[in-house]
Amino acid sequence: MLTPTDPISSFILNLDTWIISDTLFFHANIARYCDRTDGWQDLIVANWNRLVRPGETIFHLGDLALGKREQAEALFENLVAVEIYKTLAHRGEEPLFYSWRTSAGAEVDFIVEHEGGLVPVEAKLSATPRTRMARGIAGFRGDFGERAGRGFVVHPGDTVLPLGDGAIALPFSAF
């Protein structure tokens, strides 16, 4: 019999669990090999956004993407933005998103206006967050002072840890 402390008990499937596999985003030939229709990548993303709710569990088995790293990073940024939006929208809020970039090249992926403040969020496709990933957040907070809240570096790993003054590494699974 499984108890709540057994590791396997956290993998019991229920109506809040989704399983998807082998999306193979950005694969140059997969549409031809697997007879996928035009716009198949957009369809996967649209269905994900329409059906998956905050707090639900998603198991992605197999290959998420096959292409250039920049493409996978853009896909991860999109997933992070959508999850932030859905989380706030399901609380009855209407989130506003901005981006921030200086002429010197410092940038933050998302600035989320929330409860009168500005929350900087970086999406980083690395399971090992590092302090340097929060440099843009530090610059943003320096420019915007008290209006800027604590920042987050969202990543696909499982670590929550401080990344210097005013920034925290947060796993994507926290959404």
Secondary-structure element series? EHHEHEEEHEEE
**Over all CA atoms, what is the radius of gyration?**
18 Å
The N- and C-terminal alpha carbons lie at a distance of 30 Å
- Give the number of helices: 4
CATH hierarchy class name of the largest domain: Alpha Beta
Q: Which range best describes the helical content: under 10%, 10-25%, 25-40%, 40-55%, 55-70% or over 70%?
A: 25-40%
Count of discrete domains: 2
* Oligomeric state of the chains in view: single chain
Low-confidence stretches: none
CATH architecture of the largest domain, by name, is: 3-Layer(aba) Sandwich
What would you call the structural class? Answer: alpha/beta
Gross geometry: globular
Q: Quick one: biggest sheet?
A: 6 strands, mixed
Q: What's the count of strands? A: 8
Mean pLDDT: 86
Spatial order of the strands forming the largest sheet: 3-4-5-6-8-7
